[in-house]
Amino acid sequence: MTPAEWVLLGGAATFAGTLNAVAGGGSFLTLPALAMVGVPPVSANATGTAALLPGYMAGAWAQRKDLSGPMAPSLLRLSVLSVLGGAAGATLLLSTSNSDFGRIVPWLLLAATLLFACGPRLLRKGAVASQSPSEWITDICIAAVAIYGGYFNDGLGILLLAVLAALGHTDMSRMNGIKNFVSVILTLIAVVIYAASGAIAWTHALWMAIGATAGGYFGGVTARRLKPALVRGFVVLTGLAMTAAFFLETS
């Protein structure tokens, strides 16, 4: 890669880590950056997911106390569903050709952007409409989100929170803890499958992981100084811009 491409990837990953720490949506930057330096679509998605995994792990460790005590579903059940769903999503991604995935990406980015924009409203509606669904409905919902996360990681966090609210959870700290736990498990199994298939561009991933970690630390330090609505608006505009760019590229 050229020096400019190293700077592009490092800058995108650092900014992505900051956004993830403050409001989420960092993947809107990593996937396009990898595509811009010539990484094929499927590999770009796998590489970006691997690069952001340390951030998920750090977040889960920071909120490990929020998972203490009895909960439904149990951590064991969540782990099994996350592994199965993440593995299924990763396998589905690897069975998709680069050309097909390239055509799907704009639609996935658009869906993730809209999901991110509507996240607060979805959480409120989920909390209002929450009941106590049966175990099999809960299992299907968690597994479906895990499949999505294994296939395409963008928008995963807000989707998990919306589903948890709809399933009857009301404690936001506990919900964030569950979100981080599920994200780590499904992303970890997906990355293992990506790596086994050779889909990850490791040089890019390791470099971006350093940037994402630094950005995550910076975001954690400055999060309270930034207006969440302003950051969310910036993320939505970025997502829409990236979506438009991918649609133009595939047209």
TrEMBL record:
The protein's matches in InterPro entries, at most eight in alphabetical order, are given as:
TM_pro_TauE-like, TSUP
Where in the cell does this protein reside?
Answer: Cell membrane
Listed A to Z, the keywords are: Cell membrane, Membrane, Transmembrane, Transmembrane helix, Transport
Reply yes or no: does the keyword Transmembrane apply.
Answer: yes
Membrane-traversing stretches: 6-30, 74-94, 101-122, 142-168, 180-200, 206-223, 230-248
Q: Where mainly found? A: membrane
- Similarity comment: family membership: Belongs to the 4-toluene sulfonate uptake permease (TSUP) (TC 2.A.102) family.
Task: State the protein's name.
Answer: Probable membrane transporter protein
